[in-house]
Description:
Elements: H1 3-17, H2 26-31, E1 40-45, H3 71-78, E2 83-89, H4 95-107, E3 111-116, H5 125-133, E4 138-144, H6 145-151, H7 155-166, E5 170-174, H8 177-189, E6 194-197, H9 211-221, E7 226-230, H10 233-238, H11 252-262, E8 267-269, H12 282-293, H13 298-313
Parallel strand pairs: 1-2, 2-3, 3-4, 4-5, 5-6, 6-7, 7-8
Helix pairs in contact: 6-8, 8-9, 9-11
Amino acid sequence: MKRENYNRRQVMGTLLGATTATLMTPAFAQEAGPSGEIEIVDTHTHFYDPTRPEGVPWPQPGTSLYRKVMPSDWKALANPLGIHKTVVVEASKRVEDNQWILELAEREKCIVGFVGNLDPGTPEFGDQLKRFAANPVFRGIRVGGSRLIKGVEEPEFLAGIKRLVDRDLSLDVNGGPDLLMAVDKLAVKVPELRIVVDHVGGAGDAANPSSAWKEGIKASARHPKVWCKVSGLVEGASGGKGSAPKDAGYYAPVLDMVWHAFGEDRLVFGSNWPVSDRGAPFHVVVELVRQYIEGKGKTAARKYFSDNGKAVYKWIDRS
């Protein structure tokens, strides 16, 4: 796409988004009926405050991410693009940081769901899950790749994971290509569990995904209750320098792969903001996937930007 066309569409999207909670493009408008509106829910944001007395374990001091990041900061970027709802994903391993987000959500109705951070393999997990799941904003937990790879072979971990199923909660997983084979194993052992593979399974630079990643995507996608979150694209492409390519075609090797593997019903939009700032500005993150998904039609776009996130997280509309 030529730069001038990109700028024209971005301005159009910004102007339209300032007055509606939607994303509309010329292609969408032809199919979307009188309003041409498609809602966007950002299913992957992080909020934290290093100025709290106890500080934060992540991000580290001295990095560009080490600053107070609150819903108001996200809304300043997202609302002009017509994005008004988000699912927060907790990166901190401190148990009480889950409570901090839930208290934040009491004040911030834009938070429609929260993915906490708890270890399913600990003796305390059952009580912790009972405590936090009492709040309907709490929609599941996330575990890292190394923990999942080890835990999928541990009876205690699997017993904890089954508690998620009992409470109709989901599991996010985060890591590199080796994570995907563990997802395949977990989906076999606990087929009722809804699993979300974050950041396209750690594909890295989207222009040249590894064969291990491709095989892992195929293996995890064969399970009907595994979703793929299309996030982390620009971070992998820029190497943290904030200058990722702005043409969706650059990311086609990864986008095409996950589209064909998961289909239109199991791909989910997430920005990964503010971590995404290390790859590109927020509006570019949205525009890149919009460029790609608009070619799939209005139905696919509606599922990708909203319906699929609702299906996997079962978040509650609090507006």
